[in-house]
Write a structure and sequence with these properties.
- With 47 residues, the protein is mainly α.
Length: 47
């Protein structure tokens, strides 16, 4: 794995953690649930 690919993967992981933390900080609601579902679908599509 090249350094560039490693750096890209690390940035993606950090951004994913930030996004999930922001979503989880929201109060329980259908909007939060839908955002979690969208994030999971996007993550699955990236693989």
């Amino acid at each position: 794995m090249s350094f560039t690919q490693f750096r890209t993967d690390v940035k993606r992981a950090v951004n994913r953690r930030r996004m999930n933390a922001r979503i989880n900080a929201l109060p329980d609601s259908t909007v939060r649930t839908e955002l979690i579902a969208i994030a999971r679908r996007h993550e699955d599509a990236q693989r």
